[in-house]
Design brief:
alpha+beta; 10 strands
Length: about 475
């Protein structure tokens, strides 16, 4: 008993005393409420609430299938509207219960005394608050954060109904620790989470809205669109955290030394990350590459799918997606096939026999290349002699295309195939290497061959000729 008295008299600065006070307040409210259940009208109101819940359940069973079928027929609606319809469909019973119980409360207040609808009003307030919390927390994208905010709001609503918010607030405020002159309590942390959470949701909504508007502006280049979206996200989220901390009264100047130490540590430990981040900003500013460009980096050839803060996504012709660090694109040699325009010149090499007229070969090669789809007629192909080889006259054929995203190997193969058909139709041959072997006098191979010929001649001379 003495220990119990000590706990109750610890004062407002002791967390344990607040815990006991909060528990006694909750128990007292429950006991007081249980005592009121012996009154006839209190029991009647509870029965009315149960009846309303049963009616809401029956209405939900009747209306839910029809609402679901009506939702499936809304094919042209935007996705966000369909998602909210799904949320309302899941909460249909709660919505019907809130509507019906408030209707009953209004009617009972008009036809009888207010005391005979007091318990129904409490239940209606609780149901309405819980429904509003359940619907509004759907705006939070993170499932874990959504549950934390939802259950925390329900607890706060329940404490408000019981009249224990002041005791609970004192309890959270007394659970604290100090860092220098800064005092951080559990109440401060809860307030920071709530305020920053609301501001974070607002910043997320604004960033999504601005991103859709920027993406729909055709006057802004793709690289500048990515840069503008990243800058706005950094601005909105940074302002959300800064305003939230200032709202709850945290002096950010006290964190200057700590943030400086953390910054130095991050600078040494995350050099590559910071380098890629800065390289990404440079790539967005100088517009050397942008989404949709066709580039070659080493053995990787493909088109840029997206520009990230740390890497560039490149999709190749075989469907592979490479994540190239931004630093490699800044420090390495990159071939951008579509930097200033989409025109690309391709070269292929071939050879013909010395007996073929080179003037005819050049003309036939140019005509064959120009007949291939994707080869540009506005930039005619050219063919030149580049040398006289050991067994062929060597040529180079140059032609232009304007769609490098369609591939380079396939268009080269089509031009080679067109050359093969054109040469076959005009009697032009593609030679293969030929070699002449001369046996020198006095060599072992020559001596062996001469001995073999002598033995064959002697054998032929010793045969008896057959009579005619």
């Amino acid at each position: 008993m003495a220990l119990h008295d000590d706990l109750l008299n610890t004062g407002p600065d002791a967390p344990l005393g607040d815990v006991v006070g909060l528990w006694q307040g909750i128990v007292g409210s429950i006991e007081s409420y249980m005592m009121t259940l012996w009154r006839p009208w209190v029991g009647y109101q509870l029965l009315i609430a149960l009846a309303i819940f049963a009616v809401a359940h029956l209405l939900m069973m009747a209306l839910a299938p029809r609402l679901h079928a009506w939702m499936r027929a809304r094919e042209g609606w935007p996705m966000w509207r369909i998602r909210w319809l799904v949320v309302l469909h899941k909460r249909l019973r709660a919505i019907l219960f809130v509507g019906l119980i408030w209707l009953v409360v209004i009617v009972m207040r008009d036809v009888t005394w207010n005391s005979r609808s007091y318990q129904l009003s409490i239940i209606a307030n609780l149901a309405t608050a819980w429904l509003v919390v359940a619907l509004t927390t759907r705006l939070i994208g993170n499932p874990i954060l959504r549950k934390i905010v939802r259950y925390g709001a329900w607890v706060w609503v329940t404490l408000s109904i019981l009249g224990q918010t002041d005791t609970f607030t004192n309890l959270l405020d007394n659970i604290a620790f100090s860092i220098g002159t800064m005092r951080i309590s559990l109440l401060l942390v809860v307030q920071a989470v709530l305020i920053i959470g609301v501001l974070w949701i607002a910043a997320r909504f604004m960033s999504h809205t601005m991103r859709s508007k920027i993406a729909g502006n055709a006057d802004i280049s793709p690289s500048m669109q990515v840069l503008a979206v990243k800058a706005m996200q950094l601005l909105f989220y940074g302002m959300a955290v800064f305003i939230g901390l200032k709202t709850i009264g945290i002096d950010l100047t006290g964190l200057a030394v700590l943030s400086g130490a953390i910054g130095v540590g991050l600078g040494f430990g995350l050099q590559k990350v910071v380098s890629n981040l800065v390289s990404g900003i440079i790539l967005l500013l100088d517009k050397s590459i942008k989404p949709g460009d066709v580039i070659s980096l080493g053995d990787t050839f493909g088109w840029i799918n997206s520009l990230g803060a740390r890497y560039v996504s490149i999709t190749t012709r075989d469907g592979k997606e490479y994540l190239i660090p931004n630093e490699d694109l800044i420090t390495g040699q990159v071939v951008n096939w579509s930097h200033s325009n989409d025109f690309v010149r391709l070269d292929i090499y071939f050879g013909t026999a010395y007996g073929d007229n080179p003037h005819d070969v050049r003309r036939i090669a140019i005509e064959a290349a120009m007949a291939v789809p994707r080869v540009l007629e506005s930039r005619p192909a050219v063919c030149h002699i580049v040398g006289f080889g050991d067994s062929s006259v060597d040529y180079i054929l140059r032609f232009w295309i304007s769609d490098p995203t369609g591939g380079l190997t396939n268009i080269r193969g089509n031009v080679f195939l067109a050359l093969w058909d054109a040469f076959a139709a005009n009697g032009i041959s593609i030679p293969f290497p030929q070699r002449e072997v001369k046996v020198l006098e006095g060599s072992q191979l020559r001596t062996t061959a001469a001995s073999s010929d002598l033995r064959e001649d002697t054998a032929d001379a010793g045969r008896t000729p057959m009579p005619d």
